[in-house]
Amino acid sequence: MKNHFHGHLLVVILIAIIGALRATADDASNANKNGTSPTLDGYAPVISPDNIAPTAGTVNDPNAKVTVQGQPYMAQGHPCTLWDQKEVDRVKELLKTDTNLQKELASLKANMDKRLTQPLNVPLCHKGPDGKWMWPQDFPKEEAPHGDLNINGIQNCCDMSQLALVYLLTGEEKYAEYCRQMFLAYAANFPYWGRNPKASWRSAADGRLSFQFLCDGGDLANFALAYDQISNLPSLTKEDRTNIHDNFFLPMLTPYFVEAYGRLDYLSQDNNRSVICAAAVLMAGYATDDPEIVNFALYGHTKSKLKPVFTEGIGPDSEKDLGLQNFPAISPDLEPPGGLMGVHFSPGCIHDDGLWTEGSPSYTFGIAGAGLFDTAEMQWHHGVDLYSYRNGVLKRLIDSALLEAYPGDPSLPMPVIGDSGGFSLLDKRGWCNGETSVPFYLGYQRYQNPQYLPIIWNGSEHLLMSIHAGLPLVKDNVPDPGSVPASQTNVPIQNANFYQSGMGYLRVADEGHTNSLLMLFGNSWQGHDHPTKLAIDLYSFNGLLMPLSGDIFPYGDPLNANWYETSAANCLMVVDQVSQLSNSDQYKLDAFWKCFGKPPPTTPQLVYAPAATMGMQRAYSSTECPGTTMDRSLFLTSRYMADLYGGFSAGQHTFDLIWHLLGTVDTTLTMSPMTFPDPVPIGYNSLTNIRHATTDQPWSATVTFKDKQLPFWTAADGTKQTDVIFADGHYNGHSETPPTILVRRTDTKTLYGTVMDLSGDTGGYIKGATQEGGLDAGYGLLQVQTAKGTDQCFAAYRPGSYKTSTSLATDAQQAFAQMDGANVKALYLGGGTTLAVPGGSIARSTPGLAYVEKMVDGSYIVGNPSPTDATVTVTLPALTGLKAYVLDETGKQTDAATVKSSGLQTFGLDLKANSKVGFAAKQSQS
């Protein structure tokens, strides 16, 4: 986990509770739904939900009820946390025939036999020369913890849970007895351990057994599981139980009471650390039969009668120790929601669009997921069904992973969003192999989705907790690999817009070739964020072509601060060589405190417009780079990706549009060496092999990727001087230095038009690009010259009806026209009522989304992807003589569609929200 301060995130939660910050930020993206939201003189984007298409898998449809297999029940006695006696009996039965489990248990038993011959290794307690109790890290090296308290704690708690497990599965009391002795040693010494002199109750300096609360939470989970599993040991007396409860478990979870952020305790924060620790406290409550510990975990300490235990070693905590002077106080009259049910299972943590609040896939499924599914299993054993909670929100959580994974790669790799590192759902590395598989195994037991099976099959069975305290993985009631048709286990290629989390995915597939384009938008207050709003991530030819940067783990690597955690490391616009504002801890914390009480930086989505053969999306921000409005419009087909990116300001700025390409790049521009003047800004100081050329004309490069020659075109209008800078950046830690291209202009307002050829055709599909317009004109137009004709990509920067030099006429926020010679191949109206080009038009009765597209088989589809009904009217000669059919959600023809004609080539359709009609010569036989 990241060793940085996360207090700013918690402050945001506090302000949300008192109804200030979050409400104000919502105004930035939700106010004036049918009007405008001016941010700069002459710039007024229209914000309307009708311009955002809902996508399957990210819309919480209350009419689509999630079915859960089985019924929760009350476990009898102990164990009663992750496993109960029914499940212990199940594993024992499997051990009779499962040779893999037999080998694992035999290995585990041999290791524990060796452990029985060793000292307890529990740190004792000492007073120092000053008469105060010492922190064990400062003990003499010849005694426990033998140097590293964190490693000592991890080793001991894991040994104890393993000793307890061997006892549980074999019945041999010697293993549980040794575990009992370790518990009693902790109870005798733990209360007298001095506190880390440098502890500050902040993320990486707040641990009691380790260096941070997160690790303490993982340790606590193992201790609690061990105690639960030895609870029936005959030698564990009533006095032992009281001693262990009062002098070990209560002091260990006491730091989680600390109201270091207003009135929020550590178990009531919207991050992965908090949910792991809350799940561990819940486990401790059930293991020790203490309902007040259970209430603390589920609802926070304000809903529990449990009192903190400040032991002799640590003494009372002062305001200075807690860092309270840095945080605004919350009214004592307010009781903020807390714990697993008040926070972690709420819409504030698991969003309605299915994603965990921190966004980063590795933190969602590698850490937060462990705590969430631990909790669900424990509650299942105590009569509570969290698998059905919020209409199956846990199903939506794990389904979101399938939606995010890059399509076409059988290992299901995930994008490196925020400060995460790269991993895949079918990762072979041991630390995440079983950890990722466990939620999908549990999800399969409850939801029976066969798409989970490849991830379950990939996971290695293990009897122990995973590294982040996830459940053991013992696979049962799961079909064997190869026994389920691939048609059921394969994840279909889907568009996915995580509208609340701020991740818009467009996918277009053609002839076995899939393009996946992600753009980041939304609020900048979630944990593990990067200063990367409007950044894109492009996957094509079964490989990552334009990546998000991610981070290096462990996070202390200097290249993180100098490269990976900067805007310059991502495919976006950088203003004045300075990273965007971000509330995430290490980037612009000072700026956050200065704007406290105001909305944090936000990047509203303006258009999300998917279809079968094309897609568009658009977002803007006037707060990520104060003083500058950035506006990005994307257009995707199976043949190319086009980008209209504007930078608008009242004053002069240096605008760098940055591209990172995981291939090799050649250009016909004549490049000469250059250096950035001192002091070189962070991010830029990590570029090497820098050279440049100056031009005011369109120019191109050739990207060699996956043995494909892909033209890369930058348009120009012949009036803007552009400095084209080539350099080598960084990717995948220190191991790769791929090409970076900076397209630089110094101006008050600029508009970049760029096209990335994704065809792989010999000689390329894209033949050139030109552009016109800008903020002063009220619109931007990128003309893409293809091997088939000239396509047009349009964006409006304020409401109105526009007609370009190419005779494109529209009142849309974003529009797309594709040509096949003189014939219109496709039209997409994004956020308006009409789009017309020579050869065809499309109109909508109310502002919103509508499209017509030609399919590979020669048929056409007319769609209304908006969340509202509308009459869509298409004028297109190619539709004449074709029959119209209603298409279901899979694209299959159903009933004949009613068409209203107002001319020989004009066809009107009354389309329900998110529906479409096909035009074909005859009905398909599928």
List keywords for this structure.
26% helix; alpha+beta; 19 helices; 12-stranded antiparallel β-sheet; 926 residues; disordered N terminus; 15-stranded antiparallel β-sheet
Describe the overall structure.
This protein is α+β, with helices and mostly antiparallel strands and 926 residues long. It has 19 helices and 34 strands. The strands form 4 sheets. The protein has a 15-stranded antiparallel beta sheet that branches.
How many strands in all? Answer: 34
Q: How large, in whole angstroms, is the Cα Rg? A: 30 Å
**Strand residue content:** 25-35%
Query: Main sheet?
Result: 15 strands, antiparallel
Distance between the termini: 50 Å
Question: Helical residue percent?
Answer: 25-40%
Uncertain segments: 1-38, 319-330, 583-596
**Class of secondary structure makeup:** alpha+beta
- What oligomeric state do these chains adopt? single chain
What spatial form do the alpha-carbon principal axes imply?
A: globular
Number of DSSP helical runs: 19
- Please, what is the average pLDDT? 88
